[in-house]
Predict the structure of ATP-binding cassette domain-containing protein.
Amino acid sequence: MITTSGLTKVYQSRGREVTALDGVDLHVREGEVFGVLGQSGAGKSSLIRCVNLLERPTTGIVTVDGVDLTALAGRGRRAGKELRRARSRIGMVFQHFNLLSSRTVQDNVELPLEILGVSGRERRTRALELLDLVGLADKANAYPGQLSGGQKQRVGIARALAGNPKVLLSDEATSALDPETTRSILQLLRDLNQELGLTVLLITHEMDVVKTVCDSAALMKKGRVVESGTVSELLATPGSELAAELFPVSGLASGPDRTVLDVTFRGEAATQPVISQLSRTYNIDISILGAAMDTVGGRQIGRMRIELPGRYEENVVPVGFLREQGLQVDVVDDAAEVVAEAELIKDGAQ
Ligand SMILES: Nc1ncnc2c1ncn2[C@@H]1O[C@H](COP(=O)(O)OP(=O)(O)OP(=O)(O)O)[C@@H](O)[C@H]1O
């Protein structure tokens, strides 16, 4: 539904060039909720703004629902009209709602329809339908200033849906909201995704958002996508940074000459007593350093960090046993963990 290939965006800023996107290839399938994560400055906003051509990419191609938007941009009047039409099929939701304070809720929702030249009567009916869909039928005549943050975002979503889009882009839609309101807005996006078959591309810096609503996710760093896939694929990828952040377990080895493993359980494997079997079969003592259960991508999943006596070379057979039981086993390298933690501290300090 959304494809970018070789997308770059270079800004000219005070005489120097800033590369915000450095060759981004993204594939968002029809009907999925796709989350793009990354630290501040990674290029997330530039990406989403290039997808609907709010920002003109420097090079590369953006296709939405089979239409090459980059080919239409800046190619005369006729193509401009086609681009406007294609863009009306892409809704956009903003972090700070971007509502007009002098217009009522209903008039805010009608605005894109006015621009599309829809008649007054049709606009009113459509706006009321949309307000009903987002649970705000009783606020049609209120002004944005009279609404809570969550209600304002619902109006923003209703407005984004006015042109009957197939795609909804969301730029940090929940980051100005409290946790409870965030949950209800995410639920609304999920319901719209399922009821209307809407494809949603959202950018966020919150792992919880990805956990709650996303089918797929990508991690951006310095203008590049460094990991992407369905949430289940990512969780099954050894060494995936997104998986580790989506589902963190911690705990350091209790001393030298120990093997630390992250064992991920899902489905049937979660109900088997594998740890006690492992201990009995190989006559080893196992310490549990950390454990967590969670629902990720709608599936229950568990992860446990365990420690076995002896170095990894001495534990190849027990590790093989765990893998034979269908468990995902990642060997935790303490030295790498220490480096990763130091990087996190350094990034946080910047
Ligand atoms: N209009 C602009 N002019 C010059 N540089 C820009 C412009 N917009 C973004 N940048 C730069 O491009 C890089 C990527 O910015 P972008 O806003 O896309 O990142 P982001 O991941 O969305 O960050 P945040 O989470 O803080 O919004 C940054 O270095 C930023 O300073």
